Amino acid sequence: MIDEDTQRELLRQMIRARVFEEAMAEVYMEGKTPAFDIAAGPVPGEMHLAAGQEPVAAGVCANLRPGDAVTATHRPHHIALAHGMDMKKMTAEIFGKETGLGHGKGGHMHLFDPETHFGCSGIVAEGMPTAVGQALAFKKQGKGNVAVAFFGEGAANQGAFHESLNLAALWKLPVIFVCEDNAWAISVPKDAATAIGNNSDRAAAYGIPGALVSDNDVTEVYETAAVALERARAGEGPSLIEVKTDRLLGHFQGDAQLYRTQEQIEELEQRDAIRRYEQALVESEVLDSAEALEIWNRARAEVEEAIEFARSSPYPAPESALTGVFA
Amino acid sequence: MTTAETGSETRLLTTSKAMVEAIAQEMERDPSVFLMGEDVGVYGGIFSSTEGLLERFGPERIMDTPISETGFIGAAVGAAIEGMRPIAELMFVDFFGVCMDQIYNHMAKIHYESGGNLNVPMVITTAMGGGYSDGAQHSQTLYGTFAHLPGMKIVIPSNPYDAKGLMTAAIQDDNPVLYFFHKGIMGLGWMTPNPRATDHVPEAPYVVEIGKADVKRSGSDVTIVTVSLMVHRALDAAEALAKDGIDAEVLDLRSLVPLDREAIVDSVTRTGRLLVVDEDYQSFGMSGEVITTAIEGAFDYLDAPPRRLAYPDVPIPYSNPLEQFCLPNAESIAAVARELVNA
Description:
- The structure holds two protein chains of two kinds.
- By secondary structure, chain A is of the alpha/beta class.
- Chain A has a single domain (about 5-25, about 40-310), classed as Rossmann fold.
- Chain A is built from ten helices and eight strands.
- In chain A, helix 1 packs across helix 10 (about 290-310) and helix 4 (about 85-95) crosses helix 10 (about 290-310).
- Chain A is globular.
- Chain B is α/β, with parallel strands linked by helices.
- Chain B has helices at about 15-30, 55, 70-80, 100-105, 110-115, 145, 160-170, 230-245, 260-270, 285-300, 320-325, 330-340, and strands spanning about 10-15, 35, 60-65, 85-90, 125-130, 155, 175-180, 200, 215, 220-225, 250, 255, 275-280, 305-310.
- Chain B has a seven-stranded mixed β-sheet, sandwiched between helices.
- The chains are: A alpha/beta, B alpha/beta.
- The interface of A and B includes residues 105, 134, 137 and 324 of A.
């Protein structure tokens, strides 16, 4: 049984991510109407939002300790926030501002934060070997920390996935692999891309535990991750966790989603994991409706502040593009 | 014998032993240095690049890996950002295709993307070069491909002294460094003998600064710019040219990134003629960059259009006469230098 403080914290982290991404979806469209121009507006470029996938990030990251490392994907915001990344610096980076994490050189797919040992990448499965190496460093340094690699179900067909699982299992490293199966690799459904139903079954190929969370349920994610992390911290090696989660939005903002029906999208919205969890906590009297509303309101205030910080921050000097290639 | 630079005792070492000595001394000095790769343990590296290290440092620090370059080079990136100083060996540079994403999209870009907040202090060692009929996938040099892409330092020693000093510098560097060693300069008993692959090397640790070219032979009539094994070929050519009264200068770049452009311009300013010798493919590569550097920096001093003698733009053939026809050698270098001087 998860204690009540942790339950409230899981809800809070999911709400923060959702509110952040709803705001980002709006900001992203600024300057992009009536004609959509991907380069226009305060937030140009691709924008991959993770609405629906918050239980994975919140459930896993609530188990992490200071110094634990996380690598994420091109869809990184919910994970970065749950892992403790500073929302202001992250937002400023997405706006391409001098005050951003990478002083505007990274962008939303390339958020690097030494403070929280967080990194992400725009190349599918690229962060998995990184997490293996972070775990290798932790083991050599005797730190007792773990590394977590988040990746989508599309990444499980990349060589990097298999090479990472093999190395981590071979060297018994303190790393856990968390597959966010949102069922879609851009427009290609999982059953058209992957030869087996559950990627968690692939753990057997490397002799490590594979756990399946089938209902996008934050409680189950939390508890499953806790087992895997305990095992990793005890020096017993890696685990693979697969969570069947939902991508409520398109692959990126502006995606017309012609590959799925309106009914399919509405069905996903109706089973929204955050609303379900909030309701469950109210019903079990972990919090009342007013307290729940307060969490939403605080998240809105925090997000507004972060966006205001990003908007009001200066752009980097153009010529700074030419510096910082080498240390 | 002692050297003026270090005052240290020297011994005759092969290039491979000099390279290994640098790794061993850095591993003694810094516990965060470790090495991984294919056959780097008991075997000692198929080109003797890690010989004796397993016995000295044990399997925790000298790690044989599976044939899984994306996995272990990617893991080196992760370990480096967590404060380790990994050395990862890519057995042949030709194998870069299976792991270039980790090398270029990840290792080389993290420092920049992070706005300077993260360093990736790691070394990738890799064997390059042909001339022994190993075919199209085990004979390439490819340093131009890597040098084209920002974010990685590229060092290419030609001799034992530089092999040690550049390795020490590479391990101590806070950036990713690719260390290319030519099989033909390692001093291996099973390759065509190369007298320049053995030389006096100081025992004490020392650094050869990355980004500094070296004038291997001073001359006044023509500058021959090259790297690695082709330095040896150029020196042989220079000896032949001297008999004809042509005084060639041989400039060993030693690093491509950063490139010592000043040394190229200085030399060409003095000799007025430039020949670039390149074992890498001719087009879009080192030869073009060096010639451009000379034209931009020493145009008024040029007495003749620069020339280049590079590997032609064809995959590397297996059969000995085919491969040797394509590779620059002392005779072909001397021939082009004569044409250049007599132009």
